[in-house]
Every structure is written in C-alpha cells, then in structure tokens.
Specification:
12 strands; 2 domains; Lumazine-bd_dom; repeat; EC 2.5.1.9; ATP_synth_asu-like_sf; Riboflavin synthase; mainly beta; six-stranded antiparallel beta barrel; six-stranded antiparallel β-barrel
Length: 206
C-alpha cells in the first residue's frame, strides 16, 4: 500500500524493451534508499513495481505487458523524471489517502493555468471513468494524492501549491501529456454499489 505522498523525483537511467516486458533502471536521490531490499515495492509514477536489483543509488524494475498497456510506463525513456514513493509501513502517517499502486486508466492534460503562486491542471479521462469524478473527491495522479477541484463531464481539475510542484514532476508537465490515474477505492466502491442497486440513472425531472 501507498499513501500518495510523493517522496521525491527519480530519473529513468535506462530502459530495455523486449516483447511483452520492459526493464527500467531508475536513479534515486542518495538518501532515499535506506533499507530497501530485493522484492520491495516502490511506486513509480503511481505504478507499484517490484525491486529486482539494487545497484548503489539505482533500482531495477520489470514491467509486464499488462502494466505497459494500462499505464504510461511504456512511454518512458532515459532521462525522464518520475515521481516515486516507497511502500507504506505500519505506523507511518497517512498524509494523503490509501493507494494500491494499481493504475486504473490514463488521462490527458488538456489545459494548464498558471495564476500567481499556484498551478491548475485540467485532465480528460476516458468516458467510462467519469462516473468516479466528484468535486473535493480524492484521486491519484502519477502517484500523488490530490483533491479534485472541479468535475465537468469526463474532465476534472486539480490545484497545485508550490510545495507540490517542488516535490513532484508536475512543474514540468505539458499539455497533451498522459498521466497515470488511480481512482479512490472508497469512491469506486460507493459508486459501483449504488449502480448495482439501480441508483445510477439520471435524476428525475420534477
């Protein structure tokens, strides 16, 4: 499990692509790998990956075909920055919201607004995921736990403060870029349960 509190930015050092499998060597800040071991879970841009090798300040990960299909990992190349978070431990502070590291879909950045001292990003998800978007609801974008600002159809916005921009890759994103999305599990459970009970139709006309 993860908390959605990004612990820093790492750099893709090498990508080796084979049929149905990609291997990534990721370089981390020197002080972020204390106690890491083979088999540990690390979220890279929100995707839970397993450490297969530890080389100094670099970790190696394998991503299978299904992961490459559902996430943006297949588009990563050497030199790209990525958000990372090591798996939460019992007793850790949950500053964001609980995440599994299993990506549901991807979204496209459709607009970037830069008012003074903050940034607003607008995203577009596939239509079938719009039902889980609610103003003030939780969502994870590239592994970062964020609060939805507005939701309009299959589009939603988030507002980023300077600290979030400093600690993540969001400061350098561009319009048209794809990001990983993990829907809040509680929101998904509530929406799906109501749908099974028949409460997902349009509101009645009064």
């Amino acid at each position: 499990m993860f908390t959605g509190i990004v612990q820093g930015v790492a750099t893709i050092e090498e990508v080796t692509a084979e049929p149905g499998l990609s291997t990534y060597i990721v370089r981390f800040p020197e002080d972020k790998l204390d106690g890491v071991s083979i088999g540990a879970s690390v979220a890279i841009n929100g995707t839970c990956l397993t450490v297969t090798r530890h080389e100094g300040s670099a970790l190696c990960f394998d991503a299978m075909q299904e992961t490459l299909k559902l996430t943006t990992l297949g588009h990563l190349k050497a030199g790209d920055p990525v958000n990372f978070e090591r798996a939460a431990r019992i007793g850790d502070e949950i500053g964001g919201h609980l995440l599994s590291g299993h990506i549901h879909t991807t979204a496209k950045i459709v607009e970037i607004l830069r008012p003074e001292n903050n940034v607003t990003l607008w995203f577009e998800v596939p239509d079938e995921w719009a039902r889980y978007l609610f103003p003030k609801g939780y969502i994870a974008i590239n592994g970062a736990s964020l609060t939805i600002g507005e939701a309009r159809g299959n589009r939603f916005s988030v507002h980023l403060i300077p600290e979030t921009l400093r600690a993540t890759t969001f400061a350098s994103v561009q319009e048209g870029q794809q990001v990983n999305i993990e829907i809040d599990s509680q929101t998904q459970t509530i929406v799906d349960t109501l749908a099974r009970l028949g409460y997902d139709g349009p509101a009645p006309t009064l």
